[in-house]
Structure formats: structure tokens, C-alpha cells
């Protein structure tokens, strides 16, 4: 961790329509907000036209479409004149599997396993017929055979081109195809036949072996140079769970950069899981903070009631009765057996080779090893295990559960073999190391695809809880738990990242705030659904999900809502999916979404709905202020310095634009201004002290002090508060001293044991308060 971490960051989504020069023009505005660093999406060369940059094609150069290295250095210089540094998103796990644009992959396809670039990728040359399957054809090979042409030493088809093995250019087409180091196949073969590691289930992204010292050095030389030159001061590490050895990679990165970078990892922590303490990083990108922030503003009683309303409304159309734990487990089985069939097959092949070579392990049938792999993978309760702690993930209880899938006890011993291999307890040969790494990598992919991209779209009582790192079965977080989390972060990871909205959140913080308020009034939500029942929906589940999405979004907009709702039904995979689409069902969904949720202004459809607006505001402002002042380095996603309503990508990845300011902007400036003025109060060495209100409405106040210099107090569950009669005589004792309202610069308060402040007075102007100690 750099000795001087950022005080706050601002994420910009770079793309050809918003290059470095456009970011440079935005610098004065962003500096005026009080941030200390710009956070840029990936900057290395990517597939032409890419709007995200995670499909890296060449680590040696800065992306030309964004302005090249000269443009990046100019942006850094302009930022520096305004007191800002740069943080860059780094993608070590994968590259674009595009032979046309990926020079390293192109060399492998041309020269095979003897290519110096063959070590770059996780390719199993022993799979299938010994050639690398490229699942890129739009149909089966015989159906497209006549569209191939050979020219300029390459094989061309429909805008794609593939290098030819030297000496094969003049062969007849069928012989030429068979003579290559790769086999071109129908895209559907990727699910079961793939011979290379990919990013999750995206076959267009091929995994990179950064654990190889040579690969690490070559793929990081440009970034290390930019760090050494002071152009880059921080790094966000994308998807470290995809790496063979995340800790080893981070150690290599810290050594290469000389410890000069503030580095955070996109690590999704599950439940009470904590970041491995040995990792040489400042912390995570903040999804663990997001879950606590969302949860502390969610009503636990109402969320439970809303789940009952949901189950009654959808019946069995969602997922066999819609219980979270069962939905999650069923999704895991489906994904591991279908979407990740190629990954399961790869693990089975490696385990089979190990067993065949070890006299003590022979005669384990492939089906038994495959079953053991599957049953253990679905029982991993977190994303993956690491160098230590594997026994806590693959527990004896998990093994016993996995064995229950076998009808014959003797066959169930395959579970012990697979568990030992995953824990590294059966040897240290190349296949043993490969199995352990691939099991952990597949475990991570399974968790992401089955929970984030499947179950979260099947179980939808309260969509605000269905966020990366969230717990749909336990959406609420008690105040005491929030404080305990902040105290631990202040002690262990004071420079970790915190977020409310990102380029990957399924709904922006403002959309989630509106939806979360429904947990305080399940009866109002039920009434709203009854009022729009006249708009026919394909099924109750899509009706519930679409209307709740529309309520959160707030403004009828079919151009944005319809694609998001279509994406939700494809991800859910209940009636249609990305790879097995049901065109008739999707047409019905689109027509319903356009006619109902995309047209009817649900937030103003009734007096009861309109009355929720102040409570949505209280939630949104409260979560924003808590994030900006809690322990950690707060990140603002582009445009979130004001009210920002966005849905799942690509909706939330539109280019940055300066917009009209609102009360959120003033709050951001005040909070970030305090962070920049007093970094010692918020960063490493700063303290976090929970403050507890006293009185009948004490539970509706979330308050804390930072190093005796700043006090944050916000209203939580304001609708329930109003229903209970308001603040009444509830009071908050402020720490000793004189305090001024940083949001208006006028009001003053005195702290001390005998000087309680009435919360009705503190929150008279707005549902949040930010107090600064007067010198």
C-alpha cells in the first residue's frame, strides 16, 4: 500500500466516444468535487470499438482509440496540475481470444505448442485430438465450408481470419483445416469441448498464465513503466479470483511496482469472509462495504413480509416455490453441469491423469471423478480457496454431502481423492498443481455465474439486495453489525475501497434506494401491483421483476427498461437464455415491458406511491453520506455526484457527461472537501467511533465520529420512523467541542455529556447531517 493512499476516487468509463482528451476536459469539474484521484477503466490496447476495454489484445501499448500513450500522459499531466493522480484498472486474468487482434494468440495458432507464446495461455493440448478448439463458427463446419477463403497466409471467414501453419497454404481445404494447430468449430461446442481456460463462460476471453514469470514480465512491462514514471499512482486489479495464485501475483506486482501503488482488488467476499491478510494490497474495490451500506438502510421485518408477498404473487413460476437457499443450490447444479461443463470436464481429465499415474489411486471411473468434482464445487460456500484456509472451505461436512450423491459407497471414495487434490494433499507434480489451481478458478466462476448471474434473477422479492457480494436471503444488516464492520476496516484495511455504484452493479444506488424503501411498506407495493394487474404479463415472475425495476428507475423509458428486463429473463434461464433463446417468450416480455413498466409512471401512479419520494431521498442521501465518510477510500462512479438512475450494463456504461447539480452534489463537495482537508482523520491512523442515540426512535439514527473531527448522522428507515410518530424526544450526544453544519455552514452545535442534541433539530433541514469540529 502506498504511504499516501487516495482520499477519494472518481471512476470514468473510457471508450472511443470518451477518450483521454475528453477525460482531460472533465478534470476541472472533477477536481472541484474534492476527489484526489481519477480512476480509469482499462487503458491497454483492446478489441477495436470495445466500450469497456476488458478484452485486452496487447499489453505492450496504450490503446490507440483512446489517444495512445501520449494521450494518457497528457491526461496525467493535466490531472496533476489540478492536484489529482490516476488510478488504472488492470486486467491480468484474460485477453481477447481474437486471432486477428491478439498477437500472442495468433502466434500460438500459427506455431502450436512450440511457440514461445504457448506458455501465455492455459491450453490443454492433450484434450480432444490434440488441437486447440476455437468455437467461432456461426454454424457446423459443413454448413460454412464453402465460405472459407485462403489469402495472405491466413484463412478467412465472415470477417474473421486465422493464421495458417507454415507450409499448409497450398493444401486442399479439407487437408488444410486438418493440418492446423487449431480446430475451427461451431460456437455451441464451447460449452462442452473447450480446451482453454476462459473468463467465466465467455469463450471470447482466454485466460492468461501470469503465474509464469516470463508472461508476467511481458504483460506488465508497460504498466510498470507508467508507474515508475509517475503517470499511474494506483491500480484496481480486475478479477483476481481467476488467477492460479492471486497472492503470488499480487506479491509479484508489488515487487515490480516497488510498492509505489495504492492497489485494491476486485475481490467479492461472501458473508463474514475476510480478505486474506497476507495479500500486499490496500483492500478490496468495495463490494463488501456496498452490502453493509445497502443492508443497514433495509427494514428486516418488512423485507421478510415482502418475501411472503412475493411467494404468493409468483407461485411456482419463479423457481419451484422461490426460497433463496434452494434457488441458489439449484442454480449451482445447473451452471456446473451446463454452462461450465467444459471446465468440469477439464478437471475430470486432470484428475484422471493423476489417478492413472498413481498406483494407489487407479480404477476411479471418470464418471465418479466428474460427480465428485461437481458435488464438491457446488458446496464451496465462498468464491474460492487460496494458499491457506482451504480446509475451511472444503470441509469434511462438504465431503459427506458430496458422497451422498453416490449410490455405491465404494464409488464415493472419489470425493476423497478430488478433495485431497483440491487441497494440495496428493502430491506436487504439474498435474497436481494444475488441478488445485483450476478447481479454485472454476469454483470462482461457478459462484459468479450461479449466484450473480442466475439466482439473483430468479429470486427477486427485493431487487435492491441482489447485488454483487449481496445476500438475497438476508438483505438487512443491523446497525451494530455495520459499526462492527467499520471498526474492523478502520483497524485492518483503512485504505480499502468503498462503493455504492460501479460499472458492474446491476442497479445504481439511487435505483436500489427506491426499491429498498418498499421493504418498509410491503402493503403499498402489493397495492401498486394490483393497480397495474390489467397489463398482461407473460408470467407473474417477470411481472414482479419488471414492475419493481421500473419503480426503482422511476421514469418511464422503454428504450432503457426493455433491454434491462430482457436481460433479466435471459440471465434467469427459466423460460429463455442467452444460448437457448425462446423468441416467442422474449417477444412477449418485450411487448409487456414496453406497454407497462416502460410506459406507466409507477412512482406517481397513486398517492401512496408518491408519498414514498421523501423516504427514497432519505435513503439515497443517507447511504451516500455514510459511504463518503466511513472508513476506506470512497469511490464515486461517473455521474453519481448527483442523482443517477441506471440499470445493468450496458445501460450504466454510457459516456460521462457533466450534468445539472443538485443537493447530492453539495453533499459530495462537503464530505470530500473534509476528507482532502483532513486526510489523517479518515485514512490510516484515523479512528471510527459509533455514536448511539437515546430515545424512542434511537434505532432510526446511524451516527459515527471520525477522529474527533467529523460527525456523520443519517436517518434510516424514515418511513417506519414517520409511522411511529417521528423523532419525538430522541437525542444524540455529540463528542466534546463546538460543531458546525458542513452542509450549510450556518448551524452550530455544542457537544459534551450534558448537551444532548434533539434529532428533530439536527435533521430539521434534511435527513442527514455532516458536522465539522470548529477550530
Average pLDDT over all residues: 96
In DSSP terms, counting alpha (H) and pi (I) runs of 4 or more, how many helices? 29
Sheet/helix structural class: alpha/beta
Number of strands: 27
**Global outline:** globular
Low-confidence stretches: none
Secondary structure: helix percent: 40-55%
Strand order of the largest sheet: 16-15-14-5-2-1-18-17
User: Which radius of gyration do the C-alpha atoms yield?
Assistant: 27 Å
- Mind summarizing the main beta sheet? 8 strands, parallel
Separation, N- and C-terminal Cα atoms: 32 Å
What portion of residues belong to β-strands?
A: 5-15%
Describe the structure.
With 775 residues, the chain is an alpha/beta fold. Strands 16-15-14-5-2-1-18-17 form an 8-stranded parallel β-sheet. Strands 19-21-22-27-24-25 form a 6-stranded antiparallel β-sheet, covered by helices on one side. Strands 6-13-12 form a 3-stranded antiparallel β-sheet, with no helix packed on it.
Amino acid at each position: 500500500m502506498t504511504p499516501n493512499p487516495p482520499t477519494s476516487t472518481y471512476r470514468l468509463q473510457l471508450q472511443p466516444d470518451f477518450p483521454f482528451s475528453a477525460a482531460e476536459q472533465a478534470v476541472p469539474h472533477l477536481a472541484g468535487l474534492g476527489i484526489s484521484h481519477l480512476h480509469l477503466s482499462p487503458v491497454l490496447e483492446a478489441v477495436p470499438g470495445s466500450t469497456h476495454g476488458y478484452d485486452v489484445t496487447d499489453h505492450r501499448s496504450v490503446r490507440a482509440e483512446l489517444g495512445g500513450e501520449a494521450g494518457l500522459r497528457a491526461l496525467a499531466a493535466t490531472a496533476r496540475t489540478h492536484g489529482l493522480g490516476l488510478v488504472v484498472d488492470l486486467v491480468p486474468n484474460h485477453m481477447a481470444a481474437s486471432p486477428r487482434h491478439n498477437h500472442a494468440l495468433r502466434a500460438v495458432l500459427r506455431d502450436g505448442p512450440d511457440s514461445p507464446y504457448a506458455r501465455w495461455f492455459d491450453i490443454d493440448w492433450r484434450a480432444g485430438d490434440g488441437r486447440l478448439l476455437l468455437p467461432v463458427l456461426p454454424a457446423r463446419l459443413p454448413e460454412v465450408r464453402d465460405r472459407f477463403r485462403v489469402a495472405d497466409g491466413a484463412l478467412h471467414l465472415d470477417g474473421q481470419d486465422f493464421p495458417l501453419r507454415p507450409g499448409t497454404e497450398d493444401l486442399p481445404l479439407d487437408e488444410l483445416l486438418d493440418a492446423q494447430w487449431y480446430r475451427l468449430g461451431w460456437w455451441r461446442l464451447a460449452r462442452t469441448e473447450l480446451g482453454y481456460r476462459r473468463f467465466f463462460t465467455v469463450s471470447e476471453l482466454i485466460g492468461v498464465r501470469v503465474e509464469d514469470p516470463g508472461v508476467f514480465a511481458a504483460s506488465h512491462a508497460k504498466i510498470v513503466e507508467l508507474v515508475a514514471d509517475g503517470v499511474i499512482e494506483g491500480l484496481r486489479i480486475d478479477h483476481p479470483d481467476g488467477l492460479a495464485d492471486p497472492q503470488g501475483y499480487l506479491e509479484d506486482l508489488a515487487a515490480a511496482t516497488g510498492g509505489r501503488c495504492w492497489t485494491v482488488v476486485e475481490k467479492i467476499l461472501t458473508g463474514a469472509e475476510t480478505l486474506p491478510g497476507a495479500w500486499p494490497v490496500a483492500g478490496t474495490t468495495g463490494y463488501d462495504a456496498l452490502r453493509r451500506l445497502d443492508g443497514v438502510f433495509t427494514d428486516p421485518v418488512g423485507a421478510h413480509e415482502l418475501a411472503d408477498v412475493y411467494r404468493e404473487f409468483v407461485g411456482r413460476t419463479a423457481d419451484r416455490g422461490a426460497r433463496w437457499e434452494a434457488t441458489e443450490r439449484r442454480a449451482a447444479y445447473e451452471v456446473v453441469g451446463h454452462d461450465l461443463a467444459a471446465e468440469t470436464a477439464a478437471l475430470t481429465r486432470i484428475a484422471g491423469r493423476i489417478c492413472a499415474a498413481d498406483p494407489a489411486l487407479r480404477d476411479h471411473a471418470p464418471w465418479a471423478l466428474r460427480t465428485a468434482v461437481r458435488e464438491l464445487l457446488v458446496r464451496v460456500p465462498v468464491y474460492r480457496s487460496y494458499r491457506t484456509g482451504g480446509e475451511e472451505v472444503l470441509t469434511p461436512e462438504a465431503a459427506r454431502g458430496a458422497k451422498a450423491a453416490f449410490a455405491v459407497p465404494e464409488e464415493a471414495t472419489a470425493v476423497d481423492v478430488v478433495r485431497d487434490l483440491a487441497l494440495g494433499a496428493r502430491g506436487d507434480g504439474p498435474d497436481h498443481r494444475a488441478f488445485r489451481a483450476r478447481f479454485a478458478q472454476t469454483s470462482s466462476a461457478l459462484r459468479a455465474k450461479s449466484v450473480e448471474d442466475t439466482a439473483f434473477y430468479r429470486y427477486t422479492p427485493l431487487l435492491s439486495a441482489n447485488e454483487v457480494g449481496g445476500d438475497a436471503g438476508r438483505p438487512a444488516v443491523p446497525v451494530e453489525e455495520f459499526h462492527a464492520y467499520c471498526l474492523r476496516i478502520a483497524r485492518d484495511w483503512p485504505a480499502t475501497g468503498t462503493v455504492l455504484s460501479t460499472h458492474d452493479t446491476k442497479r445504481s444506488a439511487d435505483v436500489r434506494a427506491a426499491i429498498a424503501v418498499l421493504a418498509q411498506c410491503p402493503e403499498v407495493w402489493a397495492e401498486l401491483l394490483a393497480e397495474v394487474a390489467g397489463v398482461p404479463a407473460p408470467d407473474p415472475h417477470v411481472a414482479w421483476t419488471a414492475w419493481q425495476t421500473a419503480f426503482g428507475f422511476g421514469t418511464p423509458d422503454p428504450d432503457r427498461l426493455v433491454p434491462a428486463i430482457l436481460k433479466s429473463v435471459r440471465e434467469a434461464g427459466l423460460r429463455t437464455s442467452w444460448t437457448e433463446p425462446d423468441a416467442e417468450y422474449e417477444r412477449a416480455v418485450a411487448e409487456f415491458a414496453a406497454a407497462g413498466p416502460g410506459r406507466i409512471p409507477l412512482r406517481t401512479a397513486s398517492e401512496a406511491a408518491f408519498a414514498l419520494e421523501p423516504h427514497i431521498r432519505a435513503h439515497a442521501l443517507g447511504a451516500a453520506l455514510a459511504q463518503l465518510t466511513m472508513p476506506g477510500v470512497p469511490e464515486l462512479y461517473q455521474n453519481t455526484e448527483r442523482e443517477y438512475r441506471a440499470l445493468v450494463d450496458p445501460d450504466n456504461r454510457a459516456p460521462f457527461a457533466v450534468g445539472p447539480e443538485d443537493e447530492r452534489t453539495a453533499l459530495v463537495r462537503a464530505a470530500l472537501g473534509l476528507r482532502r482537508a483532513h486526510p489523517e482523520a479518515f485514512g490510516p491512523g484515523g479512528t471510527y467511533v459509533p455514536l448511539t442515540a437515546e430515545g424512542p426512535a434511537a434505532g432510526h439514527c446511524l451516527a459515527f465520529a471520525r477522529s474527533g473531527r467529523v460527525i456523520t448522522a443519517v436517518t434510516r428507515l424514515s418511513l417506519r420512523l414517520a409511522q411511529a410518530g417521528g423523532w419525538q424526544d430522541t437525542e444524540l450526544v455529540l463528542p466534546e467541542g463546538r460543531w458546525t453544519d458542513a452542509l450549510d455552514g450556518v448551524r452550530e452545535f455544542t457537544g459534551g455529556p450534558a448537551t444532548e442534541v434533539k434529532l428533530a433539530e439536527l435533521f430539521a433541514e434534511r435527513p442527514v447531517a455532516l458536522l465539522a469540529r470548529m477550530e
